[in-house]
Design goal:
There is one protein chain. By secondary structure, this protein is of the alpha+beta class. It has a single domain, classed as L-fuculose-1-phosphate Aldolase (3-Layer(aba) Sandwich). It has seven helices and seven strands; from the N terminus they run αβββαβααβαββαα. β5, α5 and β6 form a beta-alpha-beta unit.
Length: 251
């Protein structure tokens, strides 16, 4: 594959480049990353392609023209803007998710402090606050330990989240990965998983946690995903096989 595309596909690539570059700023805005760690990627609609950040580049230097275009094998598409740089070290993981979860349009990875602390213990975040029931439909699960560099992390993400309502997984000893129908949706999940990780940690430090009954979690999740927001908001498609429908991000 070379960097020659139809006008429609090229327009879609250009739009995703802008979106992904901008969304990296949300990771720094919410304090989810330090130095050059973390990454956002976005699937190109209508093509077997995705856009991801370059490896080891300062967030201040990220721009649409240096986002890297890859195919779904995780190979950089030659003769495209940014193709002279190495893509994120997590590119193989993102590519695996896109290949095996066709409804996923965005993937995010951070080392956000509290979520990573839960991952370091290999402990899921229990569903003990209503906002967590709303957003994740239950506990945030833990994925297996995997080494960076090949698609092992991607396999762990897919195995853990397939059929699960959560859009976040805590990869053991590593940190959170989130998925979404769009890159923005995945970034929202990254922001929210750090928020609940912090809140539940502080609550447990103060005393015993009070679980939310499963039937109440189901009701809260259904209301938030299907009622909350404006009537003309587009609803999310499920990112995992057999997972219940979820909503698009609400501002």
């Amino acid at each position: 594959m070379s960097g020659s595309f139809s006008d429609d596909v090229q327009s879609a690539i250009d739009a995703i480049r802008v979106d992904v570059a901008r969304l990296h700023g949300e990771l720094t805005r919410y304090g989810l990353v330090v130095w050059t760690s973390g990454n956002v990627s976005g699937r190109v609609p209508g093509a077997d392609l995705f856009v991801i950040k370059p490896s080891g580049v300062s967030y201040d230097e990220l721009a649409p023209e240096n986002m890297i275009l890859c195919d779904l094998a995780g190979t950089v598409v030659p003769d495209t803007p940014g193709s002279e740089r190495a893509p994120s070290s997590d590119t193989a993981a993102h590519a695996y998710v896109y290949r095996h979860m066709p409804d996923v349009g965005g993937v995010v990875h951070t080392h956000s402090t509290y979520a990573t602390a839960w991952a370091a213990r290999g402990e899921e975040i229990p569903c003990v606050i209503t906002g967590m029931a709303d957003e994740f439909g239950g506990a945030v699960p833990v994925g297996p330990f995997a080494i960076i560099g090949d698609d092992s992390i991607g396999r762990g993400i897919v195995e853990t989240l397939t059929g699960h309502r959560s859009r976040a997984v805590l990869m053991q000893n590593h940190g959170p990965f989130t998925i979404g129908a769009t890159p923005r949706d995945a970034v929202k999940a990254a922001v929210m998983v750090e928020d609940v990780a912090r809140t539940v940690h502080l609550a447990r430090e103060a005393g015993p946690l009070i679980p939310i009954p499963p039937e109440a979690i189901d009701r809260l999740y259904d209301r938030y995903q299907n009622v909350y927001g404006q009537a003309d908001d587009a609803r999310r498609v499920p990112p995992a096989q057999d997972a219940p429908a979820q909503e698009e991000i609400y501002a």
